[in-house]
UniProtKB/TrEMBL annotation:
Pfam families: TPR_10, TPR_12
Coiled coil (UniProt feature): none
Each TPR repeat, start to end: 172-205
Subcellular location, record wording: Cytoplasm, Cytoskeleton
Family in the record: Belongs to the kinesin light chain family.
Record's protein name: TPR-like protein
Annotated keywords: Coiled coil, Cytoplasm, Cytoskeleton, Microtubule, Motor protein, Repeat, TPR repeat
Repeat listed as a keyword: yes
Organism lineage: Eukaryota, Fungi, Dikarya, Ascomycota, Pezizomycotina
Principal location listed in the UniProt entry: cytoplasm
Annotated organism of origin: Sporothrix eucalyptigena
Amino acid sequence: MVIINSAHNLGNLYSDQGRLPEAEAMLQRTLQGKEKALGPDHPSTLDTVNNLGNLYSNQSRLPEAEAMLQRALQGKEKALGPDHTSTLVTVNNLGILYRAQGRLPEAEAMYQRALQGYKKALGPDHTSTLDTVNNLGNLYSNQGRLPEAETMLQRALQGYEKALGPDHTSTLDTVYNLGNLYSNQGRLPEAEAMYQRALQGKENNNLGSLYS
């Protein structure tokens, strides 16, 4: 299992670095090893299936991504239950995939399921909960449901500021998303303020990484 876990970690690392063909090779190797050692329905196997689904999604290989994520979801529901946090991770990932495919009602259903599960399991202020709130805000914006979008994005922003600080990348991404929303509403001074804040925060973070 040490070899399998090393391959899994390398696959995730390559994925984070954008080295997607190398990531796929490592994750496929990991999946085959886990299927042989643990079985196809073991939660650890299903985690790798989930990660491959995300990788295919990042490569815009959306049918393959959906097949992997659906396999992961069905397996996790059976092995861990529908409300386990690992199951909810895959539910949220399917929401992201459906949004990318333009299947917005299905995306909303997945996000809402993930949100309710995270709130129950982790609380309303956990970062996983806030990530899903942010995703719902962006989805509502795509649907033209701008007041609902603003409510969600403001909620995500306040939670991130409290949990992670004003200059964390997740906080700044939500600031940027609010800038886009205000721009779409024609609220240009507010949009500019959000864009300026996001830019300044990103510059500060990059500057800090240079001297750390």
